[in-house]
Write a structure and sequence with these properties.
It is a single chain. The protein is mainly α and 243 residues long. It folds into 2 domains: 171 residues, no CATH class; 59 residues. The chain has 10 helices and no strands. Helix 5 runs antiparallel to helix 8. It is globular and about 65 Å long. 23% of the residues are buried. Protoporphyrin IX containing FE binds next to helix 2, helix 3, helix 5 and helix 8.
C-alpha cells in the first residue's frame, strides 16, 4: 500500500549507485526495526504484567492507534518528499504501508479473538449495530486490496493508472479511520481531533497540488497562463488542440 503519486514502482533499484543502495538498505532496515518497536513494547509490557487492569482494551487501543499513526506517516511521505526533495523517502513508503496493514490485522485479530472469542454472530451484529465498528471494519476491508496489490509485480499486472486509482482509496481509508476514532471516544476528543486535522491538512495539500498540476498542464497545452476562473471556458472554447 503506497500513497499514489507519479511512478508507483519508482526508480528501479538497479539504477541506484552502490553507495545509494547502501543508504537505502540502511534506511529500510531502520524503518523495519522502528515499525516493530510498538509491538515489541506491547510484548514487553505483557511479559512484565504491565498491560493494566484491562489488557484486552489496552492491546486493542495500542494496535488501533499505531495503525492510524502509520497510515498517516505513509500519507506524509509524498508531501515530505516534495517539500524536502529527499526522493529516497519513497523507498520506505511501501514498507510503511505494509506495516499499517500489519497493525490493522493485529488490531482486528485482538477484537475477533481476545474480545469476541470468534463469536462471528456477535461480530456481525457489532459491525451492523455499532457505527464506530462499521467504519473501522470498512477501513480494514479497504486496506486489504491495497496490501495485496503492493508488490511491483501487481503494479505491472494492473498497469500504473489502474493501480494508482485503486491506491487512491487510501485517502478514504484515512477518513474512515479518523471517523472510527472520533465516534468511539466518549470524553476527551482532543487526540482524535488532532488526527482528523492532520488528515484534513494532507487532503488539502494533495488537492492544492493536483490543482497546480492541472493548471500547469493546461497552460502548457494552450501555451498561455490560465487564470483559475477561465479554465472551464478555455477547455470548452478549444475542444481540440488549437492550430
Ligand atoms: C484501518 C482500520 C482501523 C484503524 C485505523 C483503527 C483505529 C483505532 C483507534 C485509533 C482506536 C482508539 C485507540 C485509543 O483509544 O487510543 C481504535 C479502537 C478500537 N477499534 Fe479500531 N481501527 C481500525 C479498525 C477496526 C476494526 C476492523 C475493528 C473491529 C471490527 C475495530 C475495533 C476497535 C475497538 C473495539 C476499539 C476499542 C474501543 C474502546 O476501547 O472503546 N477497529 N481503533
Amino acid at each position: 500500500m503506497n500513497a499514489p503519486q507519479e511512478s508507483p514502482i519508482g526508480k528501479s533499484a538497479e539504477n541506484a549507485k552502490p553507495q545509494q543502495m547502501m543508504s537505502i538498505t540502511r534506511m529500510k532496515l531502520i524503518t523495519f526495526v522502528v515499525c516493530l518497536l510498538p509491538l515489541a513494547w506491547l510484548c514487553f509490557l505483557a511479559w512484565q504484567d504491565g498491560l493494566g487492569a484491562n489488557p484486552i482494551e489496552y492491546i486493542t487501543r495500542e494496535t488501533g492507534v499505531w495503525t492510524l499513526r502509520l497510515l498517516l506517516i505513509t500519507l506524509c511521505i509524498t508531501p515530505l518528499r516534495k517539500l524536502t526533495s529527499w526522493h529516497a523517502l519513497v523507498r520506505v513508503r511501501r514498507m510503511l504501508g505494509l506495516f499499517t496493514f500489519f497493525y490493522a490485522v493485529l488490531h482486528f485479530l485482538t477484537y475477533v479473538w481476545l474480545d469476541q472469542f470468534f463469536d462471528f454472530t456477535g461480530i456481525v451484529m457489532d459491525v451492523y449495530k455499532r457505527p464506530f465498528i462499521t467504519v473501522g471494519f470498512a477501513a480494514f476491508v479497504l486496506l486489504l486490496p491495497l496490501a495485496v496489490t503492493s508488490s511491483n509485480a501487481m503494479v505491472r499486472m494492473l498497469g500504473g493508472r489502474r493501480w494508482q486509482a485503486l491506491h487512491r482509496t487510501v485517502y478514504a481509508i484515512a477518513i474512515l479511520a479518523v471517523t472510527h476514532y472520533l465516534w468511539l471516544v466518549k470524553k476527551d476528543m482532543t487526540r482524535p481531533l488532532i488526527y482528523a486535522a492532520i488528515v484534513l491538512l494532507l487532503l488539502a495539500v494533495r488537492a492544492w497540488w493536483r490543482e497546480q498540476e492541472r493548471r500547469a498542464q493546461l497552460a502548457g497545452k494552450y501555451g498561455m497562463r490560465v487564470a483559475p476562473s477561465t479554465i472551464p471556458q478555455v477547455v470548452k472554447f478549444f475542444p481540440k488542440r488549437p492550430g
